[in-house]
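Attaching the record inline, Q. Sequence:
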Amino acid sequence: MAVFNYGSYARAFELGVSNPNMTKVARALFEPIFNLDGVFNRAGNPYTMNSTMAKAWYNHDTDIPENVKNAAGRQDLIESIGDYFAAEILDVVTNQNQESQMYSAMLRLIRNSDLQQDQRAELLSMYEDGDKAEFLGRAFLYAVVADNTKTDPDQVEEPVDEDIRKFKDLIKRDHPKPKAIKPPKEIQDHEIGYVKELYRVYHQLSGEEYARPEDLNGQPRLRRNFDRQRKDYYLAETIHRELRDTYRIDEEDGFDLLKDEVLEGISETVDRPYGTGFDRMTAVMERASSLPLSNNLQDRTLDWVGPGEKKGVCHMLVNDKEMSWMEGFDDADTAV
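Structure, as predicted:
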């Protein structure tokens, strides 16, 4: 009898997702629960799905918190889950060309699962009636409340395909880590966003206005910091360009996945209170440099991503307006 919980549900569900990313999938699935009033983590803050949490739940390493399980049983959520899955999951997350695999796996899991007989019958009836959004949504809620640390005793990990491993090793051998691009003397158009943000950070510290790199020459410590930040940015930009040129067109999302994982890994550090924007940037860079990447992402990026590249990605996230060093500070604020 198969175990039915979030980990097993997620494995069936991801078959319907193109290039599945366990964190993105988990974030989309748990959003209606995390958005409910009164659902907070141990720190008293709303839950934020990150890569560590998503991986632990996917791999059955930890159980889902009790307050999240309780929220999954709220009547208002039960009544609205079908509408959410129709609008935010089937129309956004899943791929219609792959949904048949997902439904086949999900039905097989439910039929052979440890769900109560009436629960299995209820879910199968929803599917047979054509209400696929309600079927997936209600199955998800049943999965959340189950013990997520249980695994199927008959489940055997599939052995690593030796041919695939050799192919990956061959790709990495033929594509050694590229030589880093040296930051050009002039600021390039694609740098303007994060460079302006650095000028704001430095202005808060010194009270001086900065519009060009040369304006920092009177502040040697800030100039060294600025040059180091540009060096890290170009480490990331080197990887970005090389992956674009190395991969086929349909595999170009590797760098976007890198940005997603870095953002997920630093989000809590970014959101902490700080005395200055410089303090926030320093703390985030320290966190980013030590951030572990998933094995799948390391393969996609050919093991080219080191501490400097991850710090450089942070500046790209500033360019993308995914975060700001100065959030919460008025432009006129200066540190004493």
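The CA atoms of residues 214 and 281 lie 22 Å apart. Residues 156-161, 248-252, 332-336 have pLDDT under 50 and may be disordered.

More tomorrow.
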